[in-house]
Design a protein that fits this description.
It contains twelve helices and no strands. It is mainly alpha-helical. The chain has one domain. The model has no long low-confidence stretch (mean pLDDT about 85).
Length: about 250
Amino acid sequence: MNTFAIMKRELKSYFTSLIAYVVIAIFLIISGYFFYTNLVMFVMWVGSDVKLGLWQYTFHDMRFIMLLLIPLLTMRLFAEEKKLGTIELLYTNPIRDAEIVAGKYLSCLTVFIIMLFLTLLYPVLLEVVFSVEIGPLLAGYIGLLLLGAAFIACGIFISSLTENQIVAAMATVGVLVFFWFIDWNEGIAGEQAVEVLHRLSLFEHFTNFTKGVIDISDIVYYVSLIAFFLFCTLCSLEVRKWSGNK
């Protein structure tokens, strides 16, 4: 029950301020622009498989927008609480750290799900002109959901380390970009090293979803990464307690 109380509190904070509305609006505008330009490209110049190829390009564009915008949602979750001193109120209540982390995580994930849900307008509009295949579309959205959930877990961890929201946002982007570029040094690293780096790459595991393929190993990777960052967040809160910053 404490988890849902924290979740409700955070959702109220999101939607009583401009942050959620601004992020959602920017996400829809930019992703809508990419969807439209990709559609025009496939219809006018490429002339290839619109049903699958269009969504591959669109999902890849959406992941980049998510990388830039999700840190704006996560940056305040702990950093703002620390700066205002309200996190001390949470610690004085009979609430476990795991419930605090889960509540904040679920609130941000809910906002993200709303963002994704609104983009379903794109395939609905496309259905008027082309037949939309549900399989590749569903796989792509599952991939976006898992990718975004991992971004949020990373952002919450970074936010738990600082009192400055801007620092939290920039550091989160930096970490996510690192996971993006981690397997780009194929010319320097050996073949075995590259294979390991591919397995660690956030975006390498996302590629199969954009192709309409749901691989259990990719799902396990994202779930494991989410669990890792949430565990790190719990450790960060525990260290804060032991250091005497209650």
